[in-house]
Write a structure and sequence with these properties.
Blueprint (H helix, E strand, L loop, with lengths): L6 E8 L5 E6 L14 E4 L1 H39 L2 H32 L2 H7 L5 H12 L6
Antiparallel strand pairs: 1-2, 1-3
Helix pairs in contact: 2-4
Length: 149
């Protein structure tokens, strides 16, 4: 035999002295008494190093991708947890209530201003110094939700 085989098998069997154990063989079933399913296949490392290297690289890439995904999932979970924090939600609700009250007060003041500007004596007293109609129309648009002041 000039060169070592690329594949060898470890099979159950008897050695020369009749002792049961495992034997090295270049065939997974050297006789009808052997079951190939019981053989353990071994392959020369030097012949398959490129395959081993590719598999190792693929495994490392998979682990790196899983790690990146895990970090991303953890960050998302932290963000969602912070967004659903009961204290933060309650604080936002309180701020929204305060802003709603302030908006209602502003609308009331503008409505009163519009009503004031519509009084005939005010229109007569200004004598064109300002345009009460423009103020009234702008105030009405604001009150209807069509314009920001």
């Amino acid at each position: 035999m000039d060169k070592a085989p690329e594949t060898i098998y470890l099979i159950p069997g008897e050695d020369i002295d009749g002792v049961m154990g495992y034997l090295w063989c270049d065939d997974p079933a050297p006789s009808n008494d052997h079951d190939p399913a019981e053989a353990v296949e071994y392959v020369r490392k030097d012949k398959h190093q490129a395959i081993i290297d590719r598999q190792a690289k693929a495994a490392k890439m998979g682990m790196d991708a899983a790690k990146r995904h895990g970090v991303s999932a953890e960050n998302n979970a932290k963000r969602y947890m912070a967004a659903s924090n009961p204290e933060a939600l309650e604080s936002e609700r309180a701020m929204n209530a305060q802003l709603t009250d302030e908006l209602d007060q502003s609308r009331k003041i503008i409505a009163e201003l519009v009503e004031f500007c519509e009084q005939p004596e005010i229109v007569a007293a200004t004598d064109g110094a300002f345009d009460p109609d423009a103020i009234i129309q702008r105030g009405k648009r604001f009150l209807s939700g069509g314009e920001n002041v």
